[in-house]
Design goal:
This protein is mainly beta and about 180 residues long. The chain has one domain. About 10% of the residues have low confidence.
Amino acid sequence: MRQFVPLSMALTLLAGLAACSQMPSAPMAKKFSQDALPEAVKVPAGHVVALETVGVGEITYECRAKAGTMAYEWVFVGPQADLKNRAGAKIGTYYGPPATWAADDGSKVTGAQLAVAPAAAGSIPLQLVKANPAMGSGAMSGTSYIQRVATQGGVAPASACDAGNLGRKEIVKYQADYIFWKAV
């Protein structure tokens, strides 16, 4: 037995589909803007964003004696993080020392810190890095600056650092956006 859709219902469905096809598409991801950043960590004019990533990982600290004193402190040892694109797919790794950003395509870059600026309480500082020439060709090729922004966590542990735990290592979680810039 065949069933037919009444003509008025079919026309209504077609009109609805036509209206949907005229709706604006989903908004595109907003381009990164450094306008709200402190001057100290802004990239100079003449550069454009080449790659935006989100680093998600850990920072290791070690309890050490402060030089020339009887005090102790947590000392930064190094990071280990996955670099993800804005869609959440892993595209590389960040590790150190030395600070190294490595893309899954085999290219990588190191750099030297130029400046830092305070971040929200409980978060590592914002940072501006001058990149060294990239090794290999790929996503990191031509990188001139790297910014660490939108930091979350990563500060030294709140646990005691004293003679009783000298040499002890602690790992803390962190997240930060790493923005890669190239000269125009």
